[in-house]
Structure formats: C-alpha cells, structure tokens
Specification:
31% strand, 10 strands, globular, single chain, alpha+beta, 3 domains, 6 helices, 3-stranded antiparallel beta sheet, 206 residues
C-alpha cells in the first residue's frame, strides 16, 4: 500500500506530526498536511505496524566489502528475509552464505523502516530526546497505553528490549517508569498477560 510518510512525536495523550529538516530539527505540520507528503510503499506487519519497502541490508565479504544484499519482507506477520542478491560483478559464495547472520540483519534493516498506520498516512516516531521542549508528564489514558502496547510489540518484532524501546520513545524516563507503563497496558487490556515472571512478550488469548 502507498501512504504518505511523516515523522512523529508522542506526548502520551497527543501526537505531533512533522518533518525533519536538513539540520535534523523536527518541524511540526498538521495532520491534514501530512496526507500531502510523498507516498511510500508499505507492507502491513501487525496491528497498526507497517514495514516500508524496499527494506534491505548489505552483505559483506570477509574483507568488509559489500558484495550483495538481503531483502526483508513480511510473512504471516513476521519480519523475514525474502531474497538474497549479489551486486553486479560479485558472487555470493558458500562461505559467505554460511556467515550471513540472517536474523540480525533482518532486525537491523527493519528497525529504521517501521511505521505506524494513522488515518490516511504513516508515522515514523522519533525518540523524545530529539525535542527537549515537549512536556514530560504522562497521562495514563487509553490513547497513551495503546501507544505503549504498540511500541512494545514493535520492539518484540525487532528483537530489542521492549521496556527500553518504550522508555526511548516516550521518555526521557527511567526503565522503572517504562515497566510501570507496560504493566498498566497489560492491566487495562492493551497487552496480553506476561508469559512468566520477568519474561517479555504476551500470552495470546484463545
């Protein structure tokens, strides 16, 4: 699906949409203006999550030279490698294939290509530390807890610590606060129950 892509900052109870200028500064735009941005191609991942495509990661030979790439796609709501290609003039030997860390490359490639579906556009959220002027107080309402749940699931897809990802997205804050937000999202039904004490993930209801 083709959707306009913008950057976002989450205030817990409110989201701001914008662009990042040449100096790396966040410039806010209206939600209406977001729908007129350049359109990108996305695959649905799970829930409100999207993967922007093409999504690729380079393959390096033993000397550190780029000789090819893997392509990342979505199969049954999972991030997977769907193709391996050699660059023109290069070959992918059996030795290179045996050394490819597929899962790691898939996660690293997808990390910067995940977006969230909104009404008519896609949002790639920035870490809150990139805008020091936004309010830090969090209201644990349904909108905020739903956003925490979505960020938690995204981190699971990417193989990174979910509470750390929540803290980075909605902080700066402590990991303890992030864990409390995750617990609140579970308690209010936005996330499934934990599969066990101190275990990440969620139990899917039957």
């Amino acid at each position: 699906m083709y959707l306009p892509l913008v950057y976002g900052l989450s205030l817990g109870f409110e989201e701001r949409y914008g662009i990042v200028d040449d100096d790396g500064n966040f410039v806010e735009i209206s939600a209406g203006a977001a729908t007129f941005r350049e359109r990108k191609n996305f695959l649905p991942l799970a829930g409100e999550l999207l993967l922007e495509i093409p999504c690729t990661a380079e393959l390096l030979d033993t000397g550190g030279k780029a000789v090819g790439e893997i392509e990342v796609g979505v199969v049954e709501e999972r991030l997977v490698c769907v193709a391996v290609r050699a660059y023109p003039g290069h070959e992918l030997t059996g030795h290179i294939f045996r050394q490819i860390p597929i899962s790691k490359l898939v996660r690293e490639a997808a990390r910067s290509r995940i977006a969230h579906l909104r009404d008519g556009f896609a949002v790639r959220f920035l870490n809150q530390e990139q805008d020091p002027d936004i309010p830090r107080r969090r209201t644990l309402n349904d909108e905020f807890l739903a956003a925490v749940a979505a960020e938690y699931r995204k981190a699971l897809f990417l193989g990174i610590p979910p509470s750390l990802s929540v803290a980075q997205r909605f902080g700066p804050t402590t990991h303890e606060n992030a864990r409390r937000w995750v617990a609140a999202a579970r308690r209010e039904g936005f996330l499934g129950e934990s599969p066990g004490q101190r275990r990440k993930g969620e139990v899917q209801s039957s």
